[in-house]
Amino acid sequence: MTAVQLPKQKVHVLEGHAGAVLAARFNSNGEYALSCGKDRTIRLWNPHRGIHIKTYKAHGREVRDVHVTQDNSKLCSCGGDRQVFYWDVSTGHVVRKFRGHDSEVNAVKFNEYASVVVSAGYDKSLRVWDCKSRSTEPIQIIDTFLDSVMSICLTKTEIIAGSVDGTVRTFDIRVGREISDNLGQPVNCISLSNDGNCILASCLDSTLRLLDKSSGELLQEYKGHICKSFKTDCCLTNSDAHVAGGSEDGCIYFWDLVDASVVSSFRAHDLVVTSVSYHPKESCMITSSVDEDSNFPLFSTRFLSLALCLWNWELHDPIRKHSIAVELSKELWSYSDGLAGELLPHAHHAFGPWPSFSGPVYNNIGP
Fold it and tell me: Are 95 and 88 in contact (CB under 8 A)?
């Protein structure tokens, strides 16, 4: 993929939010998008046609993150009201409210089978919630962090989280092992490569760092943008050939994955870019910001779709150096009761109660 094939042409501006948009996410196949923000709402869009489909209202304060299941039937959200909401997409009704965080909740994610929601909070903890039971109490609390937990990623067997304490921590739920990679700078966003082998971390020293997930080795650093005071998203393109990230000056940056050179940059917004989401298949992305607007003196009412471009490229994968053997079982997290163990067909033990994480193994990467 060359720089000219990267998205940079604005196709739609999706209007509707009455305040800053804090997150914008494609669904699993890229046909729809969700956004959330300061106006306490979640909005469902068809970004390719610029159409607003539905609004979800229930939060008492700003909505900071949203995630939808792979079958598009349920979504989860979190925000300043310290709760995690579990929604039915078609009806717009709240199925369940999960309470337990002692402060604002920064991020939420479903596991692959939508049986579990994991949330990350300002209270220095991760909490795991069972969507299949009627209980509103967490089935697991992980509180080994020293500061606010800002971002989370899930694999079939791991919970990965980035924290302001400067660490990216990986929790192996099979054996109760915690590995901590110390980057030496506050981490405000993490993202997995599409092959699952690498972790991209955005740090508040205006640097993106690429880590090998299995060893914790620092593979590359990406610089040129501004990220010192705000949470700005980062991700890899769908081919894993380029790294994309937002900047506090309203620009979007693309770096070459291997040599870390800036291959493309352009101004997408007037102020801080809060979110970047790359389409899973096409040369297309959506971004959100806190742009000022004449009708709203503090914040913009829009988020921006950058490029439904008219080109394609051949997918390739330059970083598939390590293969992680995680194909233990597709039933690993598809249990009906949060504490009930199931025998895994390809594992040598039963998956019983959630393990405790007593102390991490440290990999020091930063200064």
Answer: yes
